[in-house]
Please model this.
Amino acid sequence: MSILSIKNLSKTYQSGSRKLTVLDEVNFDIQAGETLAIVGPSGSGKTTLLGLCAGLDSGSTGSVVLNGQALEKMNEDQRAFVRNKDVGFIFQNFQLLPTLTALENVMVPLELKKRKDARQKAQELLEKVGLGDRATHYPTQLSGGEQQRVSIARAFANEPKILFADEPTGNLDTETGEMIEKLIFDLNKEQGTTLVLVTHDLELAAKTQRIIHIKGGKIQEDVHA
Ligand SMILES: Nc1ncnc2c1ncn2[C@@H]1O[C@H](COP(=O)(O)OP(=O)(O)OP(=O)(O)O)[C@@H](O)[C@H]1O
Ligand SMILES: [Mg+2]
Model:
């Protein structure tokens, strides 16, 4: 079963009188439970593509069907509902809410799901990423790698069907990076979560079942291991 189906997806930005094509007629399908890496040079469109796949933004043309739901036909509220139900997202720049503590940031998706055990579950997730003793810290009181780990705990919170991770280990030392890598792949093994990683780390990419190479907004290669 296809969990994500991308057809003729393009994204253009207008910059003054010039049209900038950031994604150019992208096509691929991802099967439920698959693990995949998207690699390519800086500026090639990886983050843009991930955002469109996850319903954070919409394309200029083409379609994105996530878990049977056609995102391009939805308004922002409907897409937000799908995101909270099915999607986990680890951002390249964390995107933690600055006025909430680490614990409260992780609680957000749980509270949206009206889970009564939100606080306890969020604490467990923080412990899992090694931050049990940083629960009451605000993002500015955390190091870059710690913020990244809070954002990972938040992405795990709603037990997503598909996890999108943009450079999940980019800001971490080797040891912490390996710990996070293990958590992400365990999620795939234990819960069957589909993984879509964007990374410059070719060793990490090689651990997935499939690598999509993107350049200038176009897929160059789509290689199954
Ligand atoms: N809102 C925007 N308006 C105009 N251009 C944009 C916008 N967002 C992104 N771009 C352009 O789209 C291109 C692709 O950006 P994107 O962030 O997807 O690259 P990337 O592959 O993730 O790069 P990196 O490896 O550096 O993270 C870049 O050239 C960028 O300047
Ligand atoms: Mg990027």
